[in-house]
Design goal:
Blueprint lengths: L2 H7 L5 H21 L31 H15 L9 H15 L7 H16 L7 H14 L12 H5 L7 H12 L6 H20 L13 H15 L12 H13 L8 H17 L4 H16 L6 H6 L1 E2 L3 E2 H12 L11
Antiparallel strand pairs: 1-2
Helix pairs in contact: 2-9, 2-13, 2-15, 3-4, 3-15, 5-6, 8-9, 9-13, 10-11, 11-12, 11-13, 12-13
Length: 352
Amino acid sequence: MTTDAMNTNGAGLSPSQRQRAVGAVVAAAAGDALGAPYEFQPPVPDSEEIDMIGGGVLDWQPGEWTDDTAMAIVVLEASLATSGGHDLRVETAQDHITREWYSWSLGTPDIGTLTSQVVRTAADLAREDGHYAPRAKDFRIAADAAHEQLPASAGNGSLMRVHASVLPYLLSPEEHAVEAITAVCRLTHVHPDTIEASILWGLAVRHAILTGEVDVRVGLEHLPETRRAEWLARIEEAEQSTPVMFRRNGWVVGAFQAAWAAIVGVGPIPEGKFAQRDALVAALESAVRAGYDTDTVACIAGSLMGAALGPKAVPPEWRRMLFGWPSYELEELQGLVDRVIAPMVREGGEGA
């Protein structure tokens, strides 16, 4: 049954789909926290164990997530702050996002270079206008200015949080999800690569939640026709590689390819909860072994694996350790997702 059909007949999300929506966010946070202590470091050799150890350059606590999950939480909270529906496309939702991102940025030890530049410029614009906190329009102007200054800059900051942008649109037409992905992306990142990577990954997460299938090609038709062949070639290159081969994983395309290579590297999604847990762990460990922007690549990979497998595919010892800004632990993170998808939940069997 298609998404539109489910929306039309009022069936809503099944319990399994609801669990997979939670899984996308929980597994993304787990990948984020797993990769945090290895960030900014070279590839990790196979002889070294990967675990939720904490530490690293920024001295993270074991299980503590980084900016990747913090910024995604703001997006999810913004969807709840809008009146008349969970719609990130409206200006009030985007104003909420930018206000909270700015507030978070004042105390975080970890923020991407391009995002940091956009936040600073947006804050200056807001103060010139007599506002303490920047609004969405300030962020968009700042993002455009940053792109004009560094037109080749295409960081992965929008890709790391795109799973949050699609959750309010699981039963909406795909076009609405694409519009939301693009709107949230353009608050900080306007390079075509960043928008297109976010559309592809976001729609893959949405598809995985609805069907349990992992397919990063489902969104190709939503890219400009002149760009599809290039992205297909990038996807195929990732499928023939390993994450460590994409050393420039701070670049959105490198992060996309490294995360997809990590997922493809574990093979088809297996049957059985223990085999699925092993597959998710193997994919996240592979993403972290790539080195450099380890938290983000593992977060991106986790969002798609979790969307296909649900939160219980994340090892229970990892789930118990998860925490981070804004004073959330696993229960609060799951509760936030539950509230976002609450209007879509139904009783009964599988809906896809």
